[in-house]
User: Fold this.
Amino acid sequence: MRCLRPVLTLVATAAATALLADVFRTLGGSAADRLSTIGGEAVYRSDATVNGEPAQITAFGFSGSPAERAADLSRALGIAPPQTDADALLITGASGSDLLHLLILPASIDKTLAILITQKPPRANRATEPSWPDLPRPANAALTFTATLAATRATLVTATVPSPPAVAAREMSGLMIAAGWALAAPPTRSLALYQRRQETCAILAQPDDTLGSTRITLLQRIGQSR
Assistant:
C-alpha cells in the first residue's frame, strides 16, 4: 500500500486540476500585483459576489506545493502566515480597506493554484445575511462567507465547526455520501473531491484559529461552464 500512495496522490491532484481548470478557465483583466511579483501566473480574473456584495476574484498558478508556497503568498498580501502545513487551505485577512480571502490548492504535483477574493467591507444596512447553498451542512456550522461566480456556475462556502479537522472531514464525508455524492479521487490530508451527476465539489478541512475547531471550505461547480 505504501508504494501506491504517490500514485493515489497524483490521481487526487490530477482530479483537482481538472475541476479547477474548468471553474477558472479563462484569463480576463489584469493580475493582482503583489502575487504577480512573486511569480504568480494569472489564469483567471472576474467579478464575483461575496455574501451578496460585489467582489473580485483572481486565480494564479505557482510553482511549488501549497505547503511550500503558503507562507510566501500570505506575506505578499500582508496576511499572517498560516500555522499549518495543510496541503489545501484558506487564509483570510485585510489590506487597507479590502477584505482578502486566499484559497490555496494543489494544482498538480509541485504546483499550486492560489485563488484571491477581494471584497470591500459589507454595508451596515445589508438587507439579507448570507445563506447556506444547496450543499450538505455539518452540525453547528457557523457560516463565514459565500462567494458565487455566475459565469462558471461555481460557489465557494466557508464555515467553522467545533470539532478537529479529522472529525469534521469524516462528518462531511458521511453527509456528502448520504446526499448522493461519491469520492472522485482518494482524499488527501486536507482535501476531498466529490462528484454527483454533473456536479463536482472540493472540500477542505483545516485547523481553525480556535483550538479544537475546523475551518471547512466547499468549492462546488454545477454542470458545464458557460
